[in-house]
Write a structure and sequence with these properties.
The chain has about 700 residues and is of the alpha/beta class. The chain has two domains: about 450 residues, Amino acid/polyamine transporter I (Up-down Bundle); about 200 residues, no CATH class. Helices cover about 60% and strands about 10% of the residues. The protein is built from 24 helices and eight strands. The chain has a six-stranded mixed beta sheet with strand order 5-6-4-3-7-8, sandwiched between helices. Strand 1 and strand 2 form a beta hairpin. About 45% of the residues are buried. It is a multi-pass membrane protein.
Length: about 700
Amino acid sequence: MDLEAAAPHRPRGGSPATAPLPPANRETDVGNVRKNIFLVYKTLGVVFGGLVTSPLYVYPSMNLSSPTEADYLGIYSIMFWTLTLIGVVKYVGIALNADDHGEGGTFAMYSLLCRHADIGILPSKRGYSEEEPFLHEQSATAIRPSKLGKFFERSITARRVLLFMAILGMCMLIGDGILTPAISVLSAIEGLRGPFPSVSKPVVEALSAAILIGVFLLQKYGTSKVSFLFSPIMAAWTFTTPVVGIYSIVRYYPGIFKAISPHYIVHFFLRNKKQGWQLLGGTVLCITGAEAMFADLGHFSKKAIQIAFLSSIYPSLVLTYAGQTAYLINNVNDFSDGFYKFIPRPVYWPMFVIATLAAIVASQSLISATFSVIKQSVVLDYFPRVKVVHTSHQKEGEVYSPEINYILMVLCVGVILGFGGGKEIGNAFGVVVIMVMLITTIMLTLVMIIIWRTPPVFVGMFFIPFVIMEGSYVSAVFTKIPEGGWLPFAVSMILALIMFVWYYGRQRKIEYEMANKITMERLGQLLAMPEVQRVPGLCFFYSNIQDGLTPILGHYIKNMSSLHTVTIFVTLRYLLVSKVDQRERVLIKRLGPRGVYQCTVQYGYADNLSLKGGDDLVAQVMRCLKRHIAMSTDRRSSVSTEEEIANLEAASLAGVVHVRGKMRFYVGDDAGCFDKVMLRSYEFLHSICRSALPALGMPLQQRVEIGMLYKV
């Protein structure tokens, strides 16, 4: 049982803190403080990697020509207010509160919206329904949707656009997982060329690729097992870079913080006009990693992320960028290597080592975020099934996918060897970062209106400034598409095409099954046929539909002329919630024929499909079924409770078999060209993706597959 669910409810208004705590409670309280401090320490090392290493590549990504002191002051003012407004106000202050049971990212917000308004696309993928009173997550807003929620419910086009935005945000974040490791490590290793100009770019690229390969090979050990190495590295980075920044400020330009005044931004654009607007494509990189901070929410608590960002990350970045800018004001043409040039010679090599190690941590943060969003989309059935391994018993949000890991590794190495320079990667990086942020702003506005019921004035105060600011960034980075910005679009289009093909195929499959489902009356007729026998054993028959039974059942009974004495039709139901309470995980219902039951196993997208404590599906379902039989007052036969339980145990001892249907589409000559292309593409994806049953630990010798053609 989850600790949160088991904890007694503490009424508001009570003040137990006013009474002295007994010694045991004091120890517990001190332990919690230590745990929170350690959690914040780990958060520095995993969540903020891409954000805190941005000083390595922000200035080199800008295409400056004859910059002046006023230009640098304007650039610093832009970066300061970008960090403050987007980093502090938007993400730390608002977006982290739009979590779905502790999970963040665009898919988490999409599931949150679907649970509070009927705006999902597939009926089986919508959240809790009204006819399920045992699920107590329904809020008052779901009963009385807002006007905007009603608009989405009525408009299939609006619902598809919303789904497309969630998919696009996920695809862009995956692109982020490709580019962050490449640009971070490459920018760090570039520091070798300062003291050793003879080191060629191919050598730097090869060394960067080798480091990244090592990072990806470590992923299988999980975030928890490697974060103890990363956290001290990031703590050293966040301490040393602002110290160097303060030194640079005192030495080169003590008045740098006057640039905080927004009028320097206005003067910058008035003076540089079009070139100033184009430079936004480089300054946007100062906030890169904030989108991963939100997507990685499942790895750490909201409070730990907020404390770490406000107490360490934000002041560190403000001071580091101030120090870089102070140096560049006195060395206006050193922007192409804006980080290493401002490092004092005596500490150059220690800072090079720390920067390289910090770049490795930056890679880890986006890779883990990519695993999280891939897992979310897989369990929601919007992406072909890939293997997902839970690497922590304490944090179910910590996952690893071997297929995705090695695909990312190949793409990251390909980006480094293909692009070569950090400037082109930076152009692509800017497109990814700002697109994810703009999508987050739009979906967060919908959350404020539909779920939080925020007054329109406050919604406008959030939406208008951020859309203007992020829209300006989007318009600037789009000019970089021919110069490397095409890469994330290419990756996103491929991923979106895969997701759409998969979604279309699953939708057509559900439509066929609902139109040809086996009703209880039809099941009774099949079992009444003289040639059909009830054979000993316990059969778990897997079905995707709940209101009725899969048409494969009729195909199975007709061809096998038998059905086991105890047959449980199991539906694995993924709800648009983060986690399902353990007490509501397995739902049992007795069907009409003797020894036939229906079982629904419910999971949220952040739940672990591998059951805990060495338990398996059979044992858990058997316990729930016995409890259901013992408590049931709906006796549909003359069999007593004791006899029914005895029959169940005898069937289990006779042998367990897991039967699943393996369907294929039969596309006739009369089908349209679109159906032929889409369904054949779906067939290919379905043939190479993983089965759903191995995720539940079914023994291979107990699995049986029944094939059937679905004619469309």
